[in-house]
Design a protein that fits this description.
Number of helices: 15
Strand order of the largest sheet: 2-1-3-4
Helix content: 40-55%
Protein name: 2-hydroxyglutaryl-CoA dehydratase, D-component
Pfam families: HGD-D
GO molecular function: hydro-lyase activity
InterPro entries: FldB/FldC_alpha/beta
Family: Belongs to the FldB/FldC dehydratase alpha/beta subunit family.
Length: 331
């Protein structure tokens, strides 16, 4: 039986697959478990403070509850709390491996980090490249799913989110993931398009812990046709010559200016009317909202999430008011 290795966010999954491991994105297990609040409570009983991000508490307890024996924590380019989280896991007898996206975004820096990561799992570049090429067809299908979302208007914002965010680990089984994606695309292509007079939204920031953001938007005459970070997870923006260039083009772990450049490009291409910027309570990335609102030239609604579950009354009211304003502007 293949060893399951937990991951705290997107890592070079090709390395794990080349090493014969099964990647498991702890975020996806946590948020789809149906018992996310109980998982958080377990972390707080073990000593995690209330004013720590719910994702961190969820990651911790998910690994413990589901018996994950080894975890890769991304200590640079993601959450500033991950380094401490790894130490807590180690105290619980869980083996950890750290990986960091380089602070300096150059091919040489990315190559150095990926080569070190390959060495930790005793694989060579040729083996990793073979896996990368075998995954290219899945990544192309995810690009087609994204096109069906924004160009043909046949895929919902939530469906787009779910498939793309799942590409961080391909649900632990790329072959099954590919077959299920084929079936979904076949069905989606036969659908009637969504109405053209909808408000077209972009969703930027980390994937939401709130369950119903997408359905709330749709019930108020809007649809998300661009999921920023989820799309980055797919590594499907381009055809890449090698794995180094692929992870060099992965915008999420690097500077905000580069991210905003890609967001502005997608605003124009997808003809977006407005942006939802999602931030997580107690996360340092919330500070980025200042720069985002000053730079983007269209309405931005910032939604802050805390605990998993449905949106609270205040968030619903703010979203409805924002979309009412957007509809007035569109008309």
């Amino acid at each position: 039986m293949k060893e399951k290795i937990g991951i705290t966010t997107t890592v070079p999954v090709e390395v794990l697959l080349a090493a014969g491991k099964t990647p498991v994105d702890l975020n996806n297990i946590f948020v789809t478990s149906g018992k996310a609040k109980e998982i958080i409570e377990r972390a707080e009983l073990d000593g995690f403070p209330r004013n720590i991000c719910a994702w961190i508490k969820g990651l911790y307890s998910t690994a413990v509850v589901y018996g994950i024996d080894r975890i890769i924590g991304v200590t640079e380019g993601d959450c500033s709390n991950t380094k401490s989280l790894l130490e807590v896991w180690q105290s619980k007898g869980i083996s950890t491996v750290d990986f960091g996206f380089p602070g300096k975004r150059t091919r040489e820096a990315v190559k150095s980090e990926l080569d070190s990561f390959m060495e930790k799992f005793s694989v060579i570049l040729e083996e990793v490249e073979s896996v990368r090429k075998s995954l290219s067809s899945i990544r192309s299908k995810l690009s087609e799913l994204d096109r069906l979302t924004w160009e043909e208007n046949k895929v919902s914002g939530f469906e787009n989110h779910l498939w793309q965010v799942s590409s961080s680990d391909f649900n632990g089984d790329p072959e099954s993931f590919s077959k299920e994606l084929d079936e979904f695309l076949e069905e989606a292509k036969c659908r009637e398009p969504y109405p053209k007079n909808e408000i077209r939204l972009g969703y930027i920031g980390v994937p939401p812990i709130i369950d119903d953001i997408y359905s709330l938007a749709e019930s108020n005459g809007a649809r998300v046709v661009y999921n920023e970070v989820q799309r980055e997870f797919t590594m499907a923006k381009s055809e890449y010559p090698d794995i180094y260039e692929m992870y060099l083009d992965f915008n999420y772990p690097y500077d905000l200016d580069t991210r905003l450049g890609e967001i502005e490009k997608q605003i124009e291409e997808r003809k977006l009317d407005g942006i939802i910027h999602y931030t997580q309570s107690f996360c340092h990335r919330g500070i980025e909202d200042i720069v985002i609102k000053s730079r983007l030239k269209l309405p931005v609604l910032t939604i802050e999430g805390d605990l998993p579950g449905m949106a609270d009354a205040r968030t619903k009211l703010r979203l409805e008011s924002f979309l009412d304003m957007m509809m007035d502007l569109k008309e």
